[in-house]
Design brief:
Elements lengths: L33 H11 L12 E10 L18 E10 L14 E9 L2 E8 L12 H8 L10 H9 L5 H8 L13 E2 L4 E4 L5 E10 L8 H10 L3 H11 L5 E10 L2 H4 L19 E10 L4 H6 L12 E2 L4 H17 L75 H9 L2 H14 L5 H14 L1 H20 L14
Antiparallel strand pairs: 1-2, 1-9, 2-3, 3-4, 5-7, 6-7, 6-10, 7-8, 8-9
Helix pairs in contact: 2-3, 3-12, 4-10, 11-13, 12-13
The structure holds NADPH dihydro-nicotinamide-adenine-dinucleotide phosphate (NDP) and protoporphyrin IX containing FE (HEM).
The site of NADPH dihydro-nicotinamide-adenine-dinucleotide phosphate has 17 residues, from α10.
Catalytic activity: 2 H2O2 = O2 + 2 H2O
Protein name: catalase
Cofactor: heme
Length: about 500
């Protein structure tokens, strides 16, 4: 079989890819050796910025198959008939670690889905948890600073985490999940996925419903203890990548049951809690899970960088029949992701094969850095025009959404119950799970100033007195263990104020 001839990026054939061009066998190199210059220059540009959060991840392609009719709630093409299949990409991730971080860390797992539908891409960018740490996006960058490295020590800071959490009681629900057994999954296949936010569905009659998305693992939830994870990381920093990649290569395709919860539009007003608050779930007893379909991952990427690192998911990618909600966090994310992609990947990131919709794209955007769209030749390069350029279609208009209220910086903590739902979660745990929760928290609090620990214990007490008491006991137990072994140092920080 004849092999293709190697070339430069300009297509010029290469005669020798083993030896640089030098003045004599031992001499210095010649500037005219463009082949060497091109190779080194390309190497200098091999890395793109890593994601500011969720930098470490793994992904695979697959299929969503619809098994139940939900067309009474939505006209979205992806749900149009039982048996309908839509190709998708799912990227899992950890949140805090950098691109080279170990997989087996206690952290939330990202669950970013891109469905290549017949009416454009639908991205559902969620997590393996149904809630989040903050409910106002103004606090998101502050929260993320506490998860990343301390600017002076260049280390992760338990003090910063517990300081922020203890001053932000709305975080308690997510902190309880993070510190529970489910905060350290054995691998991505063994996690559930949640859209987390409330989104909206719009049906063919123009009626709006509020909706939450759930993916329940068919592999079963499987988790590790901190001690087990230490053993894994000592031998393998890519444990989740390996598990996912090898399972798919073996033909053991992971599957999830796709379900939804639905609320009538007008019921949002009557709900006892704010159904657009990302720190709350909708109780299953009030909003039962409705079967929709099966998600299966069945194809590994051919090239990790091109198809996973350059993949760009954004909650702003919605399709007719699926839309946003007043959730403040979702509203901010609608802006934030595409902005991140233009910086991280480039202006035309959606023209890259992995991000490109399978349906036709017609915009009037022009030019820009690295525009590699197919050249267009038309007099219709502005809108409106008289030259048959693409035009709007009012059939896609959404029904109007009633909104009222005085514009202000409303205190999101006023009258908000941050304790009942975390307490409910605590109360449904088995005794073994509760013990794990207590000891995980006690371990995570090592080195944190006592005043911050006391403030956080107050939150556990309010969720359930047994929760606070259990953590106190675990802290005492661990302090005893530490005196008998090596003493744990307080983190090198300035003393907290107040
Ligand atoms: P249910 O008893 O109907 O549901 C309990 C839910 O908790 C199940 O979805 C279960 O997931 C999940 N769960 C069990 N252990 C953990 C854990 N350690 N971390 C996270 N989730 C866990 O109760 P409710 O609907 O009334 O909710 C009670 C509490 O359950 C909530 O306050 C919330 O913390 C948690 N939860 C609720 C969800 C919801 O959408 N209502 C979704 C996920 C969690 P599984 O079935 O996979 O075992
Ligand atoms: C990644 C912002 C909240 C899930 C990202 C990225 C940004 C970002 C900028 C990097 C995107 C990229 O470079 O491709 C925000 C902001 C938030 C927020 C501003 C709140 C206001 C959330 C929430 C969830 C979530 C609530 C889950 C429910 C994810 C996931 C990724 C991610 C899964 C990784 C996507 C991928 O795999 O490429 N976020 N985020 N984020 N975020 Fe958020």
């Amino acid at each position: 079989m004849s092999r293709p001839i190697m070339t430069t990026t300009g297509g010029n054939p290469i005669a020798d890819n083993q030896n640089s061009k030098s003045a004599g066998p031992r001499g210095p190199l010649l500037l005219e050796d463009y082949q060497l210059i091109e190779k080194l220059a390309h190497q200098n540009r091999e890395r793109i910025p890593e994601r500011v959060v969720h930098a470490k991840g793994s992904g695979a392609f697959g299929t969503l198959t619809i098994t139940h009719d939900i067309t009474r709630y939505t006209k979205a093409e992806v749900f149009s008939e039982v048996g309908k299949q839509t190709e998708c990409l799912l990227r899992f991730s950890t949140v805090a670690g950098e691109r080279g971080a170990a997989d087996a860390e206690r952290d939330v797992r990202g669950w970013a889905l891109k469905f290549y539908t017949g009416q454009g891409n639908w991205d559902l960018v969620g997590n393996n948890t149904p809630v989040f740490f903050v409910r106002d996006p103004l606090k998101f960058p502050d929260f993320i600073h506490t998860q990343k490295r301390h600017p002076r020590t260049n280390m992760r800071s338990a003090t910063a985490m517990w300081d922020f959490w203890s001053l932000s009681p709305e975080s308690l629900h997510q902190v309880t999940i993070l510190m529970s057994d489910r905060g350290l999954p054995i691998g991505y296949r063994h996690t559930n996925g949640y859209g987390s936010h409330t989104y909206s569905f719009i049906n063919a009659q123009g009626e709006r419903f509020w909706v939450k998305f759930h993916f329940k693992t068919r592999q079963g939830i499987q988790c590790m203890t901190n001690a087990e994870a230490e053993q894994v990381i000592a031998k393998d920093r890519e444990s989740s990548q390996k598990d996912l990649y090898e399972a798919i290569e073996r033909g053991e395709y992971p599957q999830w049951d796709f379900k939804i919860q639905v609320m009538a539009e007008e019921d949002a007003e009557k709900c006892a809690f704010n159904p657009f608050d990302l720190t709350k779930v909708w109780p299953h007893a009030d909003y039962p899970l409705i079967d929709v379909g099966v998600l299966e991952l069945n194809r590994n990427p051919e090239n990790y960088f091109q198809e996973i690192e350059q993949a760009a998911f954004s909650p702003s990618n919605i399709v007719p029949g699926i839309s946003f909600s007043p959730d403040k966090m979702l509203q901010a994310r609608i802006f934030s992701y595409a902005d991140a992609h233009r910086y991280r990947v480039g202006t035309w990131y959606e023209a890259l094969p992995v991000n490109q919709p399978k349906s036709e794209v017609h915009t009037y955007h022009l030019d820009g850095s690295m525009n590699f769209m197919k050249p267009k030749s038309s007099d219709a390069y502005y809108e409106p025009n008289s030259f048959d350029g693409p035009a709007e279609e009012d059939a896609f208009a959404e029904p109007p959404l009633k909104i009222s209220g005085d514009a202000d910086r409303w205190n999101h903590r006023d009258g908000n119950d941050d304790y009942t739902q975390p307490g409910n979660l605590f109360r449904l745990m088995s005794d073994v799970q509760k013990e794990q929760l207590f000891s995980n928290i006690a371990e995570a609090m090592q080195g944190v100033p006592q005043s911050i620990i006391d403030r956080q214990l107050g939150h556990f007490d309010q969720a359930d007195p047994a929760y606070g008491a259990g953590v106190r006991e675990a802290l005492v137990r661990l302090a005893g263990d530490n005196t008998n072994n090596i003493s744990v140092q307080e983190e090198p920080q300035a003393a907290p104020v107040g």
